[in-house]
Write a structure and sequence with these properties.
Aspartate Aminotransferase, domain 2, seven-stranded mixed sheet, 2 domains, Aspartate Aminotransferase, domain 1, three-stranded antiparallel sheet, binds pyridoxal-5'-phosphate, 14 strands, alpha/beta, 360 residues, single chain
């Protein structure tokens, strides 16, 4: 068996230990005589999986008791509608910072439900930076301010959160979930699709401050009403059972590594290796402003489309896969999520060095 280093933006690599444990437990989970895929979501044995996943998440992220943790479906994209339906219920206003396609999609969806305002945008420079804002930029009567914390496509991240005063901040953390410690108390809600850093596709996790719940619009579909899911401990209907189980294994893996502080340390070491190389290379260069660089997604280019294509082709042949950049950015992108081992980044940098010698 030979496994590749997969630099995909998502779905992405899972820790090998997790895959092995899942394989070992596939036919008979803890003496139950069944696979987790087969068991009732109302069974005692499954209850300990979903409760275990929640309590591990609470422990690792230090989530306070006044926040609900919801295991949902529909991907991050479904929350683009659920968020306005649940929270745009006071003034009917929401302010957005447009830092890329995901923020823009969330903005366009919310527009269907109320008075949305794009307070700042970095579209002018192809989203290669995080725009600066101050408290005065936001409407003080807005129901929430929305940001996309880590911009998967463009490779930027918020290092400092916008000051929104008393207006709750809601963040899409899909591509930086569990990559480093996060102060949940700074947010009204954070949420993300699991397939980047937490589990396989099919699960969306939302962490919501309780006082914001219970005010969904009457027209809100039941399945999009966060209060319903909170009241039913994420078991209103059948949850993505197996994905939640893998999520629990990933959380155990992070805990055994030493938690989110340690995860951050490992992620910083990986990102530094790649960024240092890019900063010193004569052929490759990073596309993002240094101060806004993501730890998770690293876009880079040679400046020559043919060379970029050659790089993608040759790197794939060398077992470094999915390095092609997003179609709107071009070039390359290395997504180096939690499960990417440092050996994978090392292999990538060595490959880039070799490519530069041959083509520089
Ligand atoms: C991948 C991604 C999404 C889309 O997630 P889906 O689960 O496919 O809907 C949204 N936001 C960010 C930041 C992402 O990286």
């Amino acid at each position: 068996m030979s496994r590749v280093y997969n630099f995909s933006a998502g779905p992405s690599m899972l820790p090998e230990e997790v895959l092995k444990k899942a394989a070992a437990e596939m036919l008979d989970y803890e003496g139950s005589g069944q696979s987790v895929m087969e068991m009732s979501h109302r069974s005692k044995v499954y209850d300990s999986i979903i409760k275990g996943a929640e309590s591990l998440l609470r422990e690792l992220m230090n989530i306070p008791d006044n926040y609900k943790v919801l295991f949902l479906q529909g991907g991050a994209s479904t929350q683009f509608a659920a968020i306005p339906l649940n929270f745009m219920n006071g003034s009917g206003k929401a302010d957005f910072i447009i830092t890329g396609q995901w923020a823009k999609k969330a903005f366009s969806e919310a527009k269907k439900y109320g008075d949305v305002k794009a307070v700042a945008s970095s579209e002018d420079e192809v989203y290669t930076y995080i725009p600066k804002t101050s408290k005065e930029d936001f409407r003080s009567d807005a129901d929430y301010v929305y940001i996309c914390m880590n911009n998967t496509i463009y490779g930027t991240v918020y290092k400092e959160l916008p000051d929104t005063g008393d207006v709750p901040l809601i963040a899409d953390i899909s591509s930086c979930f569990l990559s480093e410690p996060l102060d949940v108390t700074k947010f009204g809600m954070v949420y993300g699709g699991a397939q980047k850093n937490v589990a396989p596709a099919g699960l969306t996790i939302a962490i919501i401050r309780e006082d914001l719940l219970g005010k969904a619009r009457d027209i809100t579909p039941t399945m999009l009403n966060y209060q319903i899911h909170a009241d039913n401990d994420s078991l209103y209907n059948t949850p993505p059972c197996y994905t939640i189980y893998i999520c629990k294994l990933v959380l155990e893996w992070i805990k055994n590594l030493g938690g989110l502080e340690k995860m951050k340390e490992l992620n910083e070491a990986k990102a530094k290796m790649l960024y240092d190389f890019l900063d010193n290379s004569k052929l490759f260069k990073g596309t993002v402003r240094k101060e806004d660089r993501s730890l998770m997604n690293v876009p880079f280019v040679t400046g020559n489309e043919e060379l970029d294509a050659k790089f993608v082709k040759e790197s794939t042949a060398a077992g470094l896969v999915n390095l092609k950049g997003h179609r709107t950015v071009g070039g390359m992108r290395a997504s180096i999520y939690n499960a990417m081992p440092i050996e994978g980044v090392k292999a990538l940098v060595e490959f880039m060095e070799k490519f530069e010698k041959e083509n520089g």
